[in-house]
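[job 4471] stage=fold_predict status=RUNNING
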Amino acid sequence: RNARHYHVIARRFLRQSQNANLLAALYTQAAQGEGCFSCHNLHGRGGTVGPDLAREGSRGRSDAWLIGHFKDRRAYSPASVMPAFAGLSNSQLEALATFLQNQKAK
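[job 4471] inference complete, writing C-alpha coordinates
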Protein backbone atom coordinates (compact mmCIF):
# COMPACT_ATOMS: atom_id res chain seq x y z
CA ARG A 1 0.00 0.00 0.00
CA ASN A 2 1.19 3.48 -0.75
CA ALA A 3 1.06 6.81 1.05
CA ARG A 4 -2.09 7.82 -0.86
CA HIS A 5 -3.96 4.78 0.51
CA TYR A 6 -3.15 5.81 4.09
CA HIS A 7 -3.93 9.43 3.32
CA VAL A 8 -7.43 8.42 2.18
CA ILE A 9 -7.94 6.39 5.37
CA ALA A 10 -6.65 9.25 7.51
CA ARG A 11 -9.01 11.73 5.83
CA ARG A 12 -11.97 9.45 6.55
CA PHE A 13 -11.06 9.25 10.24
CA LEU A 14 -10.34 12.98 10.31
CA ARG A 15 -13.98 13.64 9.49
CA GLN A 16 -14.89 11.60 12.56
CA SER A 17 -12.32 13.13 14.91
CA GLN A 18 -12.11 16.70 13.53
CA ASN A 19 -8.42 16.83 14.47
CA ALA A 20 -6.02 18.22 11.86
CA ASN A 21 -2.99 17.05 13.85
CA LEU A 22 -4.17 13.45 13.51
CA LEU A 23 -4.20 13.72 9.73
CA ALA A 24 -0.69 15.15 9.82
CA ALA A 25 0.51 12.35 12.12
CA LEU A 26 -1.00 9.53 10.06
CA TYR A 27 0.07 11.04 6.77
CA THR A 28 3.63 11.57 8.05
CA GLN A 29 3.82 7.92 9.06
CA ALA A 30 2.39 6.74 5.77
CA ALA A 31 4.81 8.87 3.81
CA GLN A 32 7.68 7.37 5.79
CA GLY A 33 6.44 3.87 5.08
CA GLU A 34 5.67 3.26 8.74
CA GLY A 35 1.89 3.66 8.70
CA CYS A 36 -0.10 2.37 11.64
CA PHE A 37 -2.29 0.37 9.30
CA SER A 38 0.59 -1.71 8.00
CA CYS A 39 0.35 -3.70 11.23
CA HIS A 40 -2.81 -2.52 13.00
CA ASN A 41 -6.43 -2.94 11.99
CA LEU A 42 -8.99 -0.20 12.47
CA HIS A 43 -12.61 -0.80 11.53
CA GLY A 44 -11.82 -3.55 9.05
CA ARG A 45 -8.83 -1.94 7.36
CA GLY A 46 -5.16 -2.66 7.86
CA GLY A 47 -2.91 -5.44 9.05
CA THR A 48 -3.16 -8.02 11.78
CA VAL A 49 0.37 -8.04 13.26
CA GLY A 50 -0.50 -5.52 16.00
CA PRO A 51 -3.60 -5.18 18.18
CA ASP A 52 -6.88 -3.97 16.69
CA LEU A 53 -7.01 -0.21 17.32
CA ALA A 54 -10.82 -0.02 17.25
CA ARG A 55 -10.87 -0.89 20.98
CA GLU A 56 -7.78 0.99 22.14
CA GLY A 57 -9.82 3.57 24.07
CA SER A 58 -11.38 0.80 26.16
CA ARG A 59 -8.07 -0.62 27.36
CA GLY A 60 -7.67 1.82 30.26
CA ARG A 61 -4.37 3.33 29.15
CA SER A 62 -3.64 6.99 29.80
CA ASP A 63 -2.56 9.50 27.16
CA ALA A 64 0.85 9.57 28.85
CA TRP A 65 1.13 5.78 28.53
CA LEU A 66 0.24 5.88 24.83
CA ILE A 67 2.66 8.72 24.07
CA GLY A 68 5.39 6.99 26.06
CA HIS A 69 4.74 3.81 24.11
CA PHE A 70 4.93 5.69 20.81
CA LYS A 71 8.30 7.15 21.77
CA ASP A 72 9.89 4.12 23.48
CA ARG A 73 7.68 1.08 23.03
CA ARG A 74 10.10 -1.35 24.68
CA ALA A 75 9.90 0.56 27.97
CA TYR A 76 6.15 -0.13 27.99
CA SER A 77 5.84 -3.38 26.03
CA PRO A 78 9.21 -5.18 25.93
CA ALA A 79 8.12 -7.68 23.27
CA SER A 80 6.68 -5.01 20.94
CA VAL A 81 7.97 -4.86 17.38
CA MET A 82 6.32 -1.50 16.69
CA PRO A 83 8.73 1.14 15.33
CA ALA A 84 9.36 4.32 17.34
CA PHE A 85 7.62 7.51 16.22
CA ALA A 86 10.76 9.63 16.12
CA GLY A 87 9.51 11.81 13.25
CA LEU A 88 6.32 13.01 14.95
CA SER A 89 6.03 16.20 16.96
CA ASN A 90 4.59 16.25 20.48
CA SER A 91 1.35 17.77 19.17
CA GLN A 92 1.05 14.99 16.58
CA LEU A 93 1.69 12.35 19.26
CA GLU A 94 -0.95 13.97 21.48
CA ALA A 95 -3.42 14.00 18.58
CA LEU A 96 -2.74 10.34 17.88
CA ALA A 97 -3.27 9.48 21.57
CA THR A 98 -6.52 11.46 21.63
CA PHE A 99 -7.73 9.73 18.50
CA LEU A 100 -6.94 6.28 19.92
CA GLN A 101 -8.59 7.10 23.25
CA ASN A 102 -11.80 7.72 21.30
CA GLN A 103 -11.71 4.28 19.67
CA LYS A 104 -14.12 2.27 21.85
CA ALA A 105 -15.74 -0.25 19.51
CA LYS A 106 -17.73 -2.97 21.19
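[job 4471] summary: The helical segments are 3-17, 20-31, 63-71, 73-76, 90-101.
[job 4471] exit 0
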